[in-house]
């Protein structure tokens, strides 16, 4: 079993931008496109708007990316690099109990979502819309990870550590609950006149997700064991 601190404090995954036909220009275009797709949705994004924001000509844009769908897929594959790194980090804990793996996965998801907020926004937009783009995301990025997490939830239920809710609903509830504050950062700033990106607010958000949301799925057995480990010398 990996050491406890490896499960409690995972290293931060990093994003590697795609290069399409090569070079920093394509990477910059994909980065701008990812931000616009995540904020505006696929239909409202234009190739002209991306070219303007990336400070490139439309000729240069079309040299690197044939059309908007190819650019969308390239931008999504940048997120795929983040998810792949997360999977690599989680593999360190593959022999740990399912509950420990889920706890580590949740902390990693929080790190990734804060560092790359486009991920949560894209999943929310495409998850609600459905269709071919969601099918592509499920096939290439999200599906394998989410199904593996659902299997871990099933195992945690079988171990008596998680309450017996439908595993797929647990996975989606944890993820959407975790990114809700991040997705609504502009609303929080406007309505409550507070900055959710401040260090204290970030720490409070992680504590909220882990202590209230994640812990809400724990059985009394798991809670007792967790308290015992936390108070152990």
Fraction of residues in H or I helices = over 70%
Instruction: Give the tally of structural domains.
Output: 1
Could you state the oligomeric state of the chains shown? single chain
Enumerate the spans where pLDDT stays under 50 for 5 or more consecutive residues. 1-21
SS summary, helix count: 12
Distance between the termini: 19 Å
Radius of gyration: 19 Å
| SSE sequence, one letter per element | HHHHHHHHHHHH
DSSP strand count:
0
Structural class: mainly alpha
Largest sheet report: none
- Which fold name corresponds to the CATH topology? Tetracycline Repressor, domain 2
Describe this structure in words.
With 233 residues, this protein is an all-alpha fold. The protein has a single domain, classed as Tetracycline Repressor, domain 2 (Orthogonal Bundle), CATH 1.10.357. Helices cover 74% and strands 0% of the residues. The chain contains twelve helices and no strands. It has helices at 4-8, 23-40, 47-54, 58-64, 68-91, 98-115, 118-129, 132-158, 167-183, 185-192, 199-214, 220-231. Helix 2 packs across helix 3 (47-54), helix 2 packs across helix 5 and helix 5 (68-91) packs antiparallel against helix 6 (98-115). The radius of gyration is 19 Å and the shape is elongated. Residues 1-21 have low confidence and may be disordered.
């Amino acid at each position: 079993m990996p050491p406890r601190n490896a499960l409690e404090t995972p290293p931060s995954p990093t994003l590697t931008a795609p290069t399409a036909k090569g070079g920093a220009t394509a990477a910059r275009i994909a980065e701008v496109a990812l931000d616009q797709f995540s904020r505006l949705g696929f239909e409202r994004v234009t190739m002209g708007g991306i070219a303007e924001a990336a400070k490139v000509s439309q000729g240069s844009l079309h040299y690197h990316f044939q059309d908007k769908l190819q650019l969308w897929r390239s931008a999504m594959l940048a997120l795929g690099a983040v998810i792949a790194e997360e999977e690599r980090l989680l593999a360190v804990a593959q022999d740990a109990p399912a509950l420990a793996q889920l706890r580590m996965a949740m902390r990693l998801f929080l790190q990734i979502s804060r560092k790359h907020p486009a991920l949560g926004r894209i999943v929310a937009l495409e998850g609600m819309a459905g269709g071919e783009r969601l099918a592509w995301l499920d096939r290439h990025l999200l599906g394998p990870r989410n199904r593996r997490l659902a299997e871990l939830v099933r195992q945690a239920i079988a171990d008596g550590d998680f309450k017996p809710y439908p595993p797929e609903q647990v996975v989606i509830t944890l993820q959407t609950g975790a990114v809700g504050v991040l997705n609504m950062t502009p609303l929080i700033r406007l309505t409550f006149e507070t900055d959710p990106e401040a260090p204290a607010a970030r720490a409070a958000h992680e504590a909220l997700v882990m202590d209230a949301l994640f812990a809400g799925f724990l059985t009394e057995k798991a809670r007792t064991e967790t308290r015992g480990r936390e108070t152990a010398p």
